[in-house]
Amino acid sequence: MKEILIDRRENGVAVLTLNLPDLRNAMTDAMTARWRQAVAGLAADRELRCVVVTGEGKAFCAGGDLSWLAERRIEDVPALRDRMLGFYRTWLTIADLEVPTIAAVNGAAVGAGLCLALACDLVYAAEEAKLLAPFTSLGLHPGMAATYLLPRVAGVGVAREMLLTGRTMTGLEAASAGLVNRAFPRESLMAEVLGIASRIAANAPIATRLTKVALAGGGHADLDAALRWESLAQPVTMASDDMLEGLAAQREQRVPRFGNA
């Protein structure tokens, strides 16, 4: 069970650490199985407020285990399709969590590893971290929803450049391109991310979860769709104990003490 470390903190923040540093945290079969268990456990945790994903050692995640991919070469296309779809969906369950998720990209994020980071709600990177999606240089079509996640996060132009040329971006370049939210010095990355996670965890959980739903997939299709959603979601929060606590805390000039969603 060592492949994924779970650190649950008292403030409702959970830190998931990919823990195969000798393999640059590549997505082995064992790590994939452990990831499935870890995320399922977090999904059932009603006290959870925010999840941080990072990597042990010098890399965030080197992507799919290349030896695993080579072994699949002997299978036919329908069998490979089923295996790959299961692999993708297992790792992208991070996007299904109801609470906000943050990727702390401490080092190289390659291929499927980059997609894992981009599937999180917020992405922060070490300034010198390397972010790349070298699928075509390996003879592969992009996978792990790269053709959805990259243009959704950073726009079609950046997606085309990264996927067609294999361009590597540093964390600083990725922040300038809009691929990540911000870049920090590597030595302060986790402290900065945990501070952000703590601020999220301190907010009203019902409002936070509904806001995550509203922003899923890049936000609403148009103004009217946003107004229809907000005219329902905002009254839900108006009827909650969270709103009463938030107003009382503001009136009394204290930190609010919200319950679980």
UniProtKB/TrEMBL annotation:
Residues forming coiled coils: none
Superkingdom per UniProt: Bacteria
The keyword Cell division appears for this protein: no
Annotated Pfam families: ECH_1
InterPro entries in the record: ClpP/crotonase-like_dom_sf, Enoyl-CoA_hyd/isom_CS, Enoyl-CoA_hydra/iso, Enoyl-CoA_hydra_C
Membrane-traversing stretches: none
Entry keywords, A to Z: Lyase
Statement: the UniProt record of this protein carries the keyword Lyase: yes
PANTHER family for this protein: 3-HYDROXYBUTYRYL-COA DEHYDRATASE-LIKE PROTEIN, MITOCHONDRIAL, ENOYL-COA HYDRATASE-RELATED
Sequence similarity: Belongs to the enoyl-CoA hydratase/isomerase family.
Protein name: Enoyl-CoA hydratase/isomerase family protein
Biological classification of the source: Bacteria, Bacillati, Actinomycetota, Actinomycetes, Streptosporangiales
